[in-house]
């Protein structure tokens, strides 16, 4: 396995902030946008699992990651909203509030999914 492929896949190690920081030293934007077999990039994975610190580090490295699309055209904001990760939602909104306008392939946005799942703190954050 070549080094680039190896450390791109390692970026998706879940929850290991120090490993992600170290690997980012050797990564380019293309590597960060690489998707796994399920169609998720590193930011989507971090957002979907509520790893706020990793979300911050990835966005510091490449702010445009917040606009990448995963399965069903879901942005990291949509994913974090649906799963109830308030700190991740707040981080993404602080970086780019216009993300709130994006909808998934089903026509639902962050507000729809947060409300449907009963995530009141996220609903409040999206309304502010």
From TrEMBL:
One GO term describing the cellular component: plasma membrane
**Keyword Repeat among UniProt keywords:** yes
Keyword field: ANK repeat, Repeat
Q: Name one Pfam family in it.
A: Ank_2
Superkingdom assignment: Eukaryota
PROSITE patterns from the UniProt entry: ANK_REP_REGION, ANK_REPEAT
- Per-repeat ranges for ANK: 38-66, 106-128
Name of the featured protein: Uncharacterized protein
